[in-house]
Amino acid sequence: MADSSGGMVASTTAQRSSLSGVATKAERLGDAWPEMPPGITDRPADVWEPLLAIADAAGGDWPERAREACVYLVKQGAERGVSLGIRLLMDLHRVFDGARALFTERVLERLHSIEDAPWAELKGVPLDSRGLSRLLSQYDVSPVMVKIDGRSLMGYRSDHLADAWARYLPAISAEEPEPSEPVQLTTHERGSSGRDGSGTWGTERAP
Questions:
Q1: How far does CA 170 lie from the centroid of its chain?
Q2: How confident is the model at residue 122 (pLDDT cuts 50, 70, 90)?
Q3: Taking a C-beta distance cutoff of 8 angstroms, is the pair 112, 119 a contact?
Q4: Is the Cβ–Cβ distance between 179 and 120 less than 8 Å?
Q5: Polar residues bias located where (predicted)?
Q6: Which of 89, 100, 129, 184 has a C-alpha 20 to 30 A away from that of 68?
Q7: 28-47: per-residue pLDDT in tens?
Q8: Is 151 exposed, middle or buried (0-12, 13-18, 19+ CB in 10 A)?
């Protein structure tokens, strides 16, 4: 009877080598910063970066084909107009107008009043607090408890929106006006997701 121990050892060694190679490639992909096609920035770049990294790792004509697809699809998206999320960020920038914080009810009231915006009749009904929270969650923005003029309600802070504005509305963010003289406004953030949950209180400018 032939001794199969040698074959088993060789097979195990080959499997370990293969797994090690996969792990190494995965690590390289995670650290990769692929070159983006000209004009691909911000949100489209975030979406396409991992796909282009995989194409670069595959080699051959995949890097070129992937970049051609990237440019084509991003252009098609741009021609269809801005996404609902980007439109919301643009309108929220108008709604806050330099304010440090607003109650959700005030945010919705102002969004609904924008004549050329879809918020007063979104899929047949006005945008509500749940829909607003859902749309903003893709930008890591969540409602928090804010206290303005003695009232404590759920709302949003402009500093929580600042990163999304800077990333997806760079031209607008570059023209950000200086805030006016602040007055007392305390904000309690305990339990908010994706933000500092220390429960500290601070001074902000009321709307």
A1: 14
A2: confident
A3: yes
A4: no
A5: 10-21
A6: 89
A7: 666 778 899 988 887 788 88
A8: exposed
Cα-based angle 129, 133, 136 (whole degrees, multiple of 5): 140
Q: What is d(CA 154, CA 103) in angstroms, rounded to the nearest whole number? A: 6
Note if the pTM is more than 0.85: no
Count CB atoms within 10 A of the CB of residue 135. Answer: 19
The residues near 143 (Cβ < 8 Å, ≥ 6 apart) are 104, 129, 132, 133, 154, 155, 156, 192
**Which among 203, 156, 154, 197 has a CA at the least distance from the CA of 181?**
203
**Using CA atoms, how far apart are residues 36 and 38, in angstroms rounded to an integer?**
6
Distance between CA atoms of residues 140 and 65, nearest Å: 32
User: 127: Cβ–Cβ under 8 A, 6 or more apart, which residues?
Assistant: 108, 111, 112, 119, 120
Question: 172-190 burial string, b = 16+ CB within 10 Å, else e?
Answer: eeeeeeeeeeeeebbbebe
